[in-house]
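User: Please predict structures.

Assistant: First:
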Amino acid sequence: MNITLAQPNLLRNQSYINGQWVPADSGKTFAVTNPANGETIADLADCGADETTRAIEAADVALTTWRRKTAKERSLILRKWHQLILDNQEDLGKIMTLEQGKPLAEAKGEILYGASFIDWFADEARRIYGDVIPTFAEGKRVLTIKQPVGVVATITPWNFPNAMIARKIAPALAAGCTVVARPSKETPLSALALAELAHQAGVPEGVLNIIVGSSSKDVGGVMTSHPTVRKLSFTGSTPVGKALQSQCSDTVKRTSMELGGNAPFIVFDDADIDAAIEGLMGCKFRNAGQVCISANRILVQDGIYDEFADKLTKRVAELKTGNGLEEDVKVGPLINKGAVEKVVELVDDAVKKGAQVTVGGHDSEQGDERYYQPTVLTNVTDDMDVFSTEIFGPVAALYRFKTEDEAIERANNTPFGLASYFYSQGFSRIWRVSEALEYGMVGINEGGISTEVAPFGGIKESGNGREGSKYGIDDYVEIKYLCMGGIQEA
């Protein structure tokens, strides 16, 4: 497949280990395809356990020098990397749309979002402060310093192939850690392009390594078992996260887990309905609904339910579905046919149990099984599978509720606790509901909550740790306590 890029060397097909582009030891390759049409974009080196081991060893060697660099030296390299990403936004956006499917405008927006974390942590590198603690005894002094945790392994998903990896690598490098990263086999090209720009920015050999391969078990197994890796950061499903966390326990690695979600989006009867619909459109249909913090259960108070459903249906009907490189397309394909089949099953189950499709649904006669039309479901109830299952598709499921207490109880009735949203104009209600929702993040009269300046992460079975903000670098440093004795008093 021919791809026109201003900088063609951003399209890489090998792993990046110790500052070199390397093929698979086996000589095997795997195909990366365009979800919009099934065409092969590139054949990539199919690396596995041996290559991952070498990458970890390279990261370990590089750690000694990288951690000794001053915070300002690391900051300047990150700053240069950030600028190169901005300079190549168009190319990076094209690569992402081709391998992931999202509309080009969204892809280019993600490039800026991912770059914002590199920019942010370039500054935070110089703010890793220790403390002097009031002493507990005469002749002693108590201090703490923060040091890099060591070699970090990261595993990232396909839905945000640039941003997910940038917001893990940036704080790790800023803290003085070295990294071995495995992007999804569905979307590895964006990560490799980032590695090429990191190389151009002067990131030393071994400090950043990218392993691409078709077997998550082969690569992930080494990452979780190798004693040199001191931290694993993972974004993905809750079942996989639990398995990885268990595997890391043998070597007592630190872990950060950003796992599945089941976000409620509550609209109270005192809300600005038009503002709520506007917020929901971006929250639900961005990236074709393939977002961990996407609105999954839309709870609308009884008095405004019908008006809200009618207005939402009209807005959703305006969305154009198609190849993300085409003009005016707002919703691209799902990542693969299996993803479409999952959405079909959820909607079919809801309809069988009494839900109504007011717009959209799967058109099996359209001749392409990679797309699912933006859909609104009304009269959805809690006994339907769609209530407890993360949809990961462009389907807005609307539920009725009567009281505030009922909305909170139903919103919290899930093992997940990543993101939540609600719309209300009542000052007291805003405080009550914000405090009552059992989620790591709450959007109040706002459907877009992702930013590098705020902590991103969940509670309960949605994971642990935070990415972004001043808290984000804490996951990549260890606190060391220094007790100084023998100090002579005057």
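Second:
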Amino acid sequence: MSNKFKRDELINQGLYINGKWQDAQQHFAVTNPADGNTIVEVASADKTQVESAIEAAEHAFKSWRKQTCEQRAEKLRAWFDLVMQHQQELAEIMTLEQGKPEQEAAGEIAYGASFIEWFAEEAKRIRGDILPNIKDNQQSRVIKQPVGVVAIITPWNFPTAMITRKVAPALAAGCTVVIKPPSLTPLSALALAVLAEKAGIPAGVINIVPTQDSSMFSETVCAHKAVRKLSFTGSTAVGSKLMKLCSDQIIKVSLELGGNAPFIVFDDADLDIAVEQLIACKFRNAGQTCISANRVLVQQSVEKAFVHKLKNAMQKLVVGKGQNKDSDLGPLINQDAVDKASDLVDDAISNGARFELEGGVDKQLGALFYQPQLLTSVTPAMSISKTEIFAPVVAVQTFDTEDEGIDLANDTEFGLAAYFCASATDRIHRVSEALEAGLVGINSGAISHALHPFGGFKQSGIGREGSHYGIDEYLEIKTLVQGAL
């Protein structure tokens, strides 16, 4: 494993099926959001190729599941080492196709790799149980076995981490996978396949089939009898459709869906900490994260002071190309993202919101570059309060009492993440238990880590990723009852 790939050697344009790179009849362009230029043309899988990938995974499952936990762990550890050895090259690829600053991209590579390392270790900790005897000559025990072939669909905003967070526990459990990366950012996924192959992960264990025909992929994997699980990260609307498709075959699902995260600032909060943590939470990936603060709820008595400090901090953020070392925010992913953010802001302003920091599209930098915006006098009835903004836009609402703040925070069908800043110990306990979200940040805007369970309440999804809970999503529980002892 001493040979090191150059960046361009990691950029692949084919499908990765059964350990081999394949072409396809159709192709699609992968573009750089910073300038709109085409990076490469990537093969777009058809139905036959997706079925071939499933069959390869089904065949590989028979032998992969029989490897010992230590053998699987060794392969995963080798993959982790190679990813970290190529951290800079992978970060450069991510910046090319996704736009985030290279330093932030390098951070995602390390974050994504941490799941490979974590689940390499968890492979050795899959435990069953010996149950109490209910008869003198009988013993009952519980074992855990891999689900089987797993279909995986990932989003564009974290093109490496959203793959490793699913693939690593699947492989650690003994499953094999068929992955459809997003057509906007497939290169990061394909680069991971190059390194997985070099790490010695057998042919067919990982299959990657980029395609522009998302419906075809979903319908094909959900109808195939070999596929026993689907893991998806994306919108609630698409997740609902996938869940319905999975119902015919009773396929297990893990769904990490939409969010509408509140960030509450109480009157006893340290406002400097609150601003610092909101900046960290809100502006990661230019606001394009599912756990980004979407509704900033500030207790009335501290709104003026908080907004003043926040505005000063936001004015220091630098928007620019991801290759620039001083850039804090890169471009948004595409024109649809820019239009959505602009429309939400325009609607809010027309309904009484006010600009504290106007920002918006920066045409001098390029069509997809969006300067941070700060709005106040926002109300719960505005569209910007009900919709994931997915842009560097802060929309501030106010509230009077603690109960009102909690009620506002929970007034959404989503429950992925929530944040609040406070000092009083009793308030921290009350609010943290009252918030309806799978992840809660308390005086902290950075809450995602390999050892933390990641997932949501309500329409934000089903299941958990990461942590020791994450591997259970890829295991079946089997009860063995043995008599005549």
